[in-house]
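Hey,
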Amino acid sequence: MKLHYKIMIVMTTAIILVIGFISLVANHQLKASMELHMGSAASDLAVVIANLPDLGQMLSEQRDDGSIQGLIESLRILTRYQYIIIMDMDGIQYAYPYESGLYKPYKNGGEEDVLRDGRAYISADNNELISAIRAFHPIYYKDEQVGAVLVGLLTDEVQKENKAHRENIEYALVIGMVLGVILALYLAMNIKKSIFGLEPKEIALLVSERELILHSIEKGIIAIDQNGEVLICNKKSQMMLNLPMDEKCSVDHLSQTPIYSYMMDAIIRKMDIVNEQLFLPNQTRILISLCLMHDSSNQVIGAVASLENLTQVRALAEELTDYRHLVDSLRAQNHEFMNKLQTISGLLQLGEHEEVLDYIDTLASKNSRLNHLLSEHIRDNKIAGLLLTKYALFSENKIDFIIDQDSFVDGLPAELNAEEACSIIGNLLENAMDAVGQEEQRKIVIFMDSNQDHFIMEIYNSGPPVDEDILECIYEKGFSTKGGNRGYGLYLVRSIIENAEGIIDYVYDEGVRWYVNIPRDKSIDR
């Protein structure tokens, strides 16, 4: 039976029984219950008032401009309480039912414990003039007690108010309370079992927190059960997948995207997925991680997928990479410049003035040729900047880096942006630098050409050939011969090239030569 049916049946039964008994008997213990209720209600209001946002600060500043009185009186007139008193640590009243008592010491007694010990309590005030139930509660500001609040309710007023109904309900309250407790316990046990021991407030808090978290995080979150029904789909996921934002995500919407079949396939194969790239029809690249959900018997009951827009991440990474390239280039150039200055200084000390001039002319000519080559032949600023950075880095590491003078880049294929091209070039050059690291002759040559049909790239290094035993594994994610958190470079390179419907291959010819070919038009035979 569903939970709401249980609640309806039990509550209806309880109401009928309570009303039936109330119509027959009266509760002779009304006074005790009433006073207990009065005390609890007064205590609750005292807690609320003590935690008003500005009250602690105003009381700590001992404002005598009537602001505290105005605040408390505006609250008191909305309640049934006869008096609410605010006092500081000296017992001086800053809020009082009558203005004549303002800024004077409290005289009725009973406030010593709350001011001395900071203890909240309920007490009776039975003097010659009035009989009341009072609730005391300390007031804090910045973790320091600055006073106390007293909430009082006159017993005579409440008894007078309830006198007309007392005789009819006195006995009914006792029996009704017993039945109510029994039924409440029965209902509570059933509810507790249904909601895993959580209180309703805890459930509401968990639900609100979950919704807030799901819709505020930058990643897309999608959850489906083993039948394919959508359990969770946050707003970020709907944005990534171009789903209607004004409608709740359903199977009809999600099944039109590749994510749905991807998740269902993972549930069928019972396999988790970590950091896989997926291309959407709108050319958006996302990173997906998928975790299967299991029940208590370890049966798969669904899957949760997290989606991250790699297009946006790469845009940010591109911006950060530009700064990194600039820093690397400046560091390498500074190191190289210091070496050149030391060379010039040594030649001058030896008196080789003519050789100094020849050395300077050689450096100037070399830099001029490089700058001319990059500015005239490589017309993409990001690629040119990357090559300049690598040139400085390789020079610092005593690697002969040659940019083929026949290279010419003027635009890229539609399926390949500058950031992706830089990722291909950067990873292949990094691998080339690792390959020649232990060689006596360390040489790297790059050639690029973007003609009307293809974007072609060749990168040669003088290192040893790739071991045939690992040839089939070099493109796998996480595979590396160097250990550590590496092995993603060639995997990323191949993913980018395959998405652009290009090819990558390598040959060994007195060194390793990598070859990349990406068509400008997908209809071109490669």
